[in-house]
Q: What sequence folds into this?
């Protein structure tokens, strides 16, 4: 049933902007699970006037790590990942979001500071010693870390070609801690940038 006419499997779809951001934060360990409360830093209890509201919007820095549900959706100053991955238009009624595929989406995963930061945090997290990695050769520990990283980001084990490429990159990085951290950061950035990360089957 390759065209899924008999609904034999789920339709493949791209994750929404909020899901992409939340998943990166979850994998890196930076996701703040706090529920409720104010979501716009700098906005007091009293409603500001138009000038103060505009200043809050255009000077706002998106630094929170809570779920994207709590990320402010301003009319003009939009979080970059929201703008790139078809977040709903807050200025008009919209019954359904578009689903675009454009080059800046790939460039976001290659260059954006948020992705680079989450990749590095994920690398630090997965490099922490695990009981299952004790008393095994470093190469075996890396294979186990890679399997855990792939399951966390792609919800599947790594394919043979992916495993070989990642292990080769780790081998070329050498044993130094900083070099290994950089290699693992690149691996997580590659996982975040893969089509399997952005899509849900």
A:
């Amino acid at each position: 049933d390759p065209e899924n006419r008999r609904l034999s499997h789920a339709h493949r779809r791209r994750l929404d902007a909020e899901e992409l951001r939340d998943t990166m934060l979850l994998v890196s360990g930076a996701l703040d699970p706090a529920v409720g409360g104010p979501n716009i830093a700098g906005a007091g209890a009293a409603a500001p006037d138009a000038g103060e509201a505009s200043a809050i919007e255009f000077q706002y820095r998106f630094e929170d790590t809570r779920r994207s549900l709590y990320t402010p959706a301003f009319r003009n100053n939009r979080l970059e990942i929201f703008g790139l991955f078809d977040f709903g238009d807050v200025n008009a009624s919209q019954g359904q979001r578009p689903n675009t595929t454009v080059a800046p989406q790939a460039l976001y995963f290659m260059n954006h500071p948020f992705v680079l930061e989450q990749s590095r945090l994920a690398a630090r997290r997965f490099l922490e010693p695990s009981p299952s990695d004790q008393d095994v050769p470093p190469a075996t520990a890396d294979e186990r870390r890679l399997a855990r990283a792939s399951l966390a980001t792609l919800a599947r084990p790594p394919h043979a070609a992916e495993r070989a490429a990642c292990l080769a990159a780790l081998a070329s990085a050498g044993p130094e801690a900083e070099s290994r951290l950089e290699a693992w950061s690149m691996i997580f950035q590659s996982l975040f940038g893969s089509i399997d990360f952005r899509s849900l089957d």
Notes: The chain has a mean pLDDT of 88. The longest helix spans residues 138-154. The first strand starts at residue 13 and ends at 14.
